[in-house]
Amino acid sequence: MDRLSSHRATKEVVNKHNFKFSKSLGQNFLIDDNVIDRILEGARLSETDRIIEVGPGIGTLTREMGKVAENVVAIEIDKTLIPILKETLADLDNVEVVNEDILKVDVQGLINEKLNGGPVKLVANLPYYITTPIVMKFLEEDIPVTDIVVMVQKEVADRMNAKPSTKDYGALSVAVQYYCDTEIVAKAPRHMFVPQPNVDSIVIGLHVRDEKKYVVDNEEIFFKTVKASFGQRRKTLLNSLGGLGFLSKDEIREALQAANIDEKRRGETLSIDEFANLSNEINKFSS
Ligand code: SAM
């Protein structure tokens, strides 16, 4: 079977199975060959790769990954797509479809059972309503993932990739860049999907670092510090860090001074290094 990424091939599969698109499941299928190639390049796909895909749809990207990678496990929530995928992926015995909700499934268990324990790459055109929880699940749950190459809404890619003191810089930027080097892989305007969504998209590569770049004594305190700092963006750090709930104003002042950060600055101006230093000082008060 040829590629499924033309509009005609996608329509044929959809019509043959009388498939009804679900808006609430974020079903916008990719119909652009070039973007598929860019995703494969961005993921630096090779024959030793073990891939997890979230939301294979009718299998457009899944097929192309199956032709190259060692194994692909594709997790799809919509049971009406399962018979379609059985057909479109029939010739690829290294591809397995799992009918589950990505947010509920035990990803580590799947990797142990079906992908030899990993390491894995997450490569997907994600359902947009749950992009952030999916990416954070992979980053925070100690899943052995080396690269995340995903199609996301342009605004989310901008936030993941943002630098300090820009309007897009926030807790998501810090969380992603704490673990990963980021790379914009490709642009995908809305006309490259069927049905057309009302947003444009970007393929972003998040390459998880082998070694930690930031010295953080207590990750829980680090992420709480970041959250509190961005919680009230208009406030100075001296005020917004009150949101942590366990520091007096004097202690906040002391921590900021020790980290060499002016108390009048706002959270959105802090680099990740500065957040790390600040959270290490705050951590000294937490025990
Ligand atoms: N990969 C296909 C493509 O590029 O054409 C489809 C991508 S579409 C944007 C998102 C896919 O994610 C749909 O197939 C949808 O059914 C699936 N999906 C939505 N929510 C999901 C969830 N919680 N767990 C797993 N898959 C989900």
From TrEMBL:
Q: Which residues form the Ribosomal RNA adenine methylase transferase N-terminal domain?
A: 35-210
E.C. number, please? 2.1.1.182
Query: Which EC class is this protein assigned?
Result: transferase
Classification via InterPro entries: KsgA/Erm (IPR001737), rRNA_Ade_diMease-like_C (IPR023165), rRNA_Ade_Mease_Trfase_CS (IPR020596), rRNA_Ade_methylase_Trfase_N (IPR020598), rRNA_adenine_dimethylase (IPR011530), SAM-dependent_MTases_sf (IPR029063)
User: SMART domains recorded for this chain?
Assistant: rADc (SM00650)
From the UniProt record, list the reaction(s) this protein catalyses.
adenosine(1518)/adenosine(1519) in 16S rRNA + 4 S-adenosyl-L-methionine = N(6)-dimethyladenosine(1518)/N(6)-dimethyladenosine(1519) in 16S rRNA + 4 S-adenosyl-L-homocysteine + 4 H(+)
What residues does S-adenosyl-L-methionine bind to? 28, 30, 55, 76, 101, 125
What does the similarity note say?
Belongs to the class I-like SAM-binding methyltransferase superfamily. rRNA adenine N(6)-methyltransferase family. RsmA subfamily.
Q: What does this protein do?
A: Specifically dimethylates two adjacent adenosines (A1518 and A1519) in the loop of a conserved hairpin near the 3'-end of 16S rRNA in the 30S particle. May play a critical role in biogenesis of 30S subunits.
Protein name, per record? Ribosomal RNA small subunit methyltransferase A
Organism, as annotated:
Intestinibacter bartlettii
